[in-house]
Each structure stands twice: as structure tokens, then as C-alpha cells.
Amino acid sequence: MCPEVRYLTEEKVYEILSICEGKKDYSPLIRVIGRIFSSADGLVQSFRKDEEQHPNTKETTAMEQESEASASMEGATGSTENRLGPVEVSVDIEAVRRVYDRLLSNEKMESAFLNALVYLTPNVELDLTYLDVYDTNPDYLNIFIIVMENSSLHSPEYLEMAMPLFCKCMSKLPLPALAKLTRLWSQYSVEHIRRMMETFQQLITYTVISNEYVSGSLVNDDEGVVAATKCLKVWELGVRTLDCRRPLIPFEEFVNEPLNNVLEMDKDFTFFKVDSESKFSFQSCPFILNACTKSLGLYYDNRISMYSERRITALYSLVQGQQLNPYLRLKVRRDHIIDDALVRLEMIAMENPADLRKQLFVEFEGEQGVDEGGVSKEFFQLVLEEMFNPDIGMFTYDESTKLFWFNPPSLENEAQFTLIGIVLGLAIYNNCILDVHFPMVVYRKLMGKKGTYLDLADSHPVQYQSLKELLDYEGDVEEDMMITFQISQTDLFGDPITYDLKENGDKIPVSVDNRKEFVSLYSDYILNKSVERQFKAFRRGFQMVTNESPLKCLFRPEEVELLICGSRNLDFHALEETTEYDGGYNKDCRIIKDFWETVHSFGEEDKRLFLQFTTGTDRAPVGGLGKLKMIIAKNGPDTDRLPTSHTCFNALLLPEYDSKEKLKERLLKAITYAKGFGML
């Protein structure tokens, strides 16, 4: 009976299983499983749907189309051509799940599935590589659908033997096949999606921790890790993380920390920029990298751009006989910092925007000192303090959220907003952290998206709550609320002005039927149209600096905020672990022990003041304070002098005070009155 079986159905499996259970001999079923599950043709023909089951497929497709229409209303794709199409598969997925549940409880059966997968994968890889089997038979995809329903794929036996081979096969599927798999799996429950995602993640982790990547051996050359990473990749299917507000699986769960720990980013960056045809770069799959690793890739890109600009400048100098400046030098007066910076940067932007990608050096007129980073930090800080001053009127400040937003009736010219954009871009480009407080929608808009109703939650919480109540209201909206499609705001002088969200808006009442349209138009006005002039100038300035960088393809909006603003989570124990000492100090000196005890005893505000005093910013860089290389250097014997700092080197110059009490008193005075003196 068994040798005649060429494919399996749920009924056939149970029939053979019943005979085996009666004889207490499972070898016939083991042989059948081994033969069918190791044969591509056998597996493709197995577990097919009956005709009466096809309506279920149509129902699923209808649900999917409804989901797509909803996504389109959110503006996810921006065009109808990118919508996901209906999914038609011939395999009965529920039947496959029931069979696996029934058989995998038997240890001998589990071994049969494992061995069959090991034998199956080489032939499937050859089929996909040389025969274009999916083009001639779309049902070939059934192999991958059936295998991925195996709930034991994450076990060590599979991870060691079968899964690396299977992932290589899957990574060779043509794009339409991968797209179809993605659309199918996106309809699964969160638990099923997470299990499949974790299978690939566990393969990467298992492989990475089982190998040593030394002496020229790179994780980029590990076929199993690369194939599993490609299996997680979805962006080339037209699905971008920027378009997804509430993913079924949080973005953070796609990050693989063990991989990040062994990845040599300098080499990976080279593969990404220069050798992408022959070498795999994990930057082509940025979802698997943490913000710290990606920021290192961005750092290399920025530094190479700066070096390239210096070489081009030197070449021009030789050819033209003119002495051109290889750096972006800004000379400004403290009391005219905005005017000076605006004139200089505006001139550069008009004459040669590429100069903005040179390394920045700032000089304050009448002051000595070479800019090794600290002067630039102070320049950024002073510019932002002045431009975000509420008295200037460029931005409004919300006391409840502690966030700034563009002031719609602002009288400032566009050049001022362009300058702010340039400053943010220069900060990223020159690896400086800024004290900027924008809502997340600003970073989404910088990445090319429009603000929507959901963005109002943190940018305009009062309006968001009002609109939410409108959407949730169960009574008669038109009679009870008496709202029209005309809204009212105040201008710069406090006088009311009206705006029609649509033509003749004052004559169109908001009702249950059109309230979603009202919310959409109102949100669009608040976040986009009312500040269009200001934001366009702001974004233009930002793109002058970052347009040629991989920023947009590597980072999500929240990661861009982290790049610009740093993290507010301060782990001073991590800082203590990485701090270096100079001038005769070491971690075992009495004063160093007193110093750290003192700093750890500080409140949150004093810790931020200390960080500002020593590094020029009160935030941690991407990756936390452990990534900050601070130096504590001896600055003479006991004295009444205050500690000083070189913010450009993150260096604290600390005299050897004779008591812990004096150390605390002097240090607190230094960090409290540091502005304008004590920081070099």
C-alpha cells in the first residue's frame, strides 16, 4: 500500500497512522513521510484543497482587499498600483497544521521530517537556480508553505542541519513568489507570524554564537546567516517600514543583537557602497541592525564624503591655481550669531551646496581656540537657543508636551527655517547631538511622509482628543456638535481667521457619514497645509546636507530623532566602565573613587548639568553613555580652582582635591555656572 503513495492528503495520513497504531509499528508511515517530504513533486501535490474549500480562499481575499482599502485611506502606499493583490494558494494550510500537530508528538516522526528536509533542499535549490520552476508551476510555492508550518523548525537539530539549506532555497525564490508568500503570511495570526520570524532569527543567533569570525572570516560570508537575513527581508516587495504605523511585530524584534556584535561595520560599509554585486551587506537589510550599528555606517559615509570633498578641493586648487578651503569654516560673532550664520550658509548653499558636506569648523570672532568639536557643539546650541526662543515667533511651545511646533502665522522669512534645517543636517553630518524638542511627525515629514490624524497624538494632543471624541461619538453628530467644514484660528496678533477645509466649508455640516473626511482634512491642515511654507524651507535646508547620504534608506523616523537629539536615558555606570584616565589618575585612585561616588549621588538634573559641562550636551549618544569616551585628567594638586573641561575631547580636568566634600562643592559650582566659561 505505502509504496504506491505519490502524494499525501490529511485523510491518507490518518489512514496510514491508524494502521501503524494498530500494529504498533510506525515504520510504514515514517517511510511515506520521508519519501513525500523529500520529494519536491510529491510535496507540491500534497494537501491540496478540495473544490468545496475554495470559497474560504475567496473570503480571505475579500478580507485582504478590505484591509488594503483601509491602508490606502491611511495613505500608506500613495498609489493604487502598489496595493497587495488577492492570494490564491492550492494547499490546505489548516489540514497541514492538523497533520503536523498529530505527528510531531512522535519523536520518530520528527526525525523523519528533519531528514526529509535535509534531502529535499539541495534539489529545490537546483530547481530554483537553473529551471525557473516557479514560472512554469506557481504551485511550487506549496513546498515553502508546508515546510514553514512545521512548529519544530526552531529546534537545535533543524537549526544546525536543515534550516541553513532551506533558507538558501527560499532566498532564491523569484520576487513574485516572495511577494505572494509575504501577502499570504501577512494574513496569519500574530502568533504564527512571530513563530516564523523567530525561526529565522534563532537560526541567525545560533549560527553567530556557534562560530568565531576571526582572521578574515566575516559574518557577511556566512551563507546561512545571509540567507536567513534575506528571508526576513520585505522592503523590496514595496513594503516600507516608514509606511507602517502599527506593525504586527514591533520593529525592535527584527533586530538581531548577536549579529550586530560580530558585524565589522567598516567592511560591511565597503560592501554596501563599492562591492554590492559580489558581497552581501547587512545595510541592504537595515531592519536587522540596531541604531548604534547603523549610525556607525552613517559615520563612515559622512567621513568618506568629507575626505572626498577635501581631495576635490585640493585638485581644484592645483588645476586652477586658487587656494580653496577644504573645510566648511564659519566665523561668527556671539551677539550676531544668527545673522552671521545665515549669511554665510545661505551664500554657500547658493554658490556650492556641496561645501555643506565638508567638515565643519566654527570660530567665534575675537576668541582663541581650535575647533576640535567643542566649538561646533556650542555654535549649534547657541543657534538653536535663539531660533527656538518663543519671542522670535518661529515656533510655538506646548507646556504640556514640552515640544515645539512650526508657528503658522510666523513672519520670519524662509531663510530662517532653511537655516534650522541646515543646522540639523550638519549636526548629523558632523556627529553632534542637539537639544531639539520636536514631535515625531517632524521626522516622519523629513523622511518624505505627510502628517496624519495619528500624528496629532503627540504634536497636538488637545486637538487629537477632540477629534477622537468626534469619531467615537454615538449620538447625532450634526445636531449635537454643530460643526462645519470651516475652522477658525488666530493670527500672529490674536485676531481670528477662518479656513474652509473644502469649498463652501461653512455650509457643509459635519455628520456621522462625513466625520472621517473632516478629521482627515483637519489633520492635513494642521500638520501640512498651515505650515507648508515653513516646513518646505526647513526640509530643503536639511536635504542640502543629507540628500546624498544613506540616511533615508537606513533609519526609521524615531532613529533619526535619536541621531539628532541623542538619548535621554543616562546610565552613568556604563559611562564609568568606559572612562579613561590621564595625567597620573587611574580607576583605583582615591579621588576617582570619590568622584564616581559623588556623581552617582547626583540627582537627574545635576547629572545632566555634568554631562553638558563635560561633553557639550546633556544627552547620551546613540548606543548610550557606554559609547561615550570620556577622559578624566589630573589638573594639579589640591587647589581652590574649579574643574574645567575640553568638550571637544569629552575631557574633564580635575584637580586632586584633598577631600570628598571639597570635590563635590567645587564640581557642583563648576557645572552650575559653566555657561560661557570653564568649557573650552
Describe this structure in words.
By secondary structure, this protein is an alpha/beta fold. Helices cover 53% and strands 6% of the residues. The protein has 30 helices and 10 strands. It has helices at residues 10-23, 27-37, 40-45, 54-73, 93-103, 107-131, 133-136, 142-147, 156-171, 175-185, 190-210, 223-232, 257-262, 265-273, 291-320, 337-351, 374-387, 414-429, 440-446, 456-459, 461-472, 477-481, 515-527, 532-546, 551-554, 557-565, 572-578, 590-601, 604-615, 660-672; strands at 328-332, 360-364, 395-398, 403-406, 486-490, 496-500, 580-582, 631-634, 644-646, 651-654. The strands form 4 sheets. Strands 7-8-10-9 form a 4-stranded mixed sheet, with helices on one face. Strands 1-2 form a two-stranded parallel ribbon. Helix 16 links the parallel strand 1 and strand 2 (360-364). Helix 2 packs parallel to helix 6, helix 6 runs parallel beside helix 9 (156-171) and helix 18 runs parallel beside helix 24. The model is unreliable at 51-84 and 676-680 (pLDDT under 50).
Number of helices: 30
Q: Say how many strands there are.
A: 10
Mean pLDDT figure:
86
| Contiguous runs where pLDDT drops below 50 for at least 5 residues | 51-84, 676-680
- Portion of residues in helices? 40-55%
Strand content: 5-15%
Structural class: alpha/beta
Biggest sheet: strands, sense, closure?
A: 4 strands, mixed
**First CA to last CA: what distance?**
88 Å
Q: Enumerate the strands of the largest sheet in spatial order, edge to edge or round the barrel.
A: 7-8-10-9
As a whole number of angstroms, the C-alpha radius of gyration is: 31 Å
Instruction: Tell me the overall shape.
Output: globular
GO molecular function, one term: ubiquitin protein ligase activity
Biased composition (Low complexity): 59-80
EC number: 2.3.2.26
Region (Disordered): 49-83
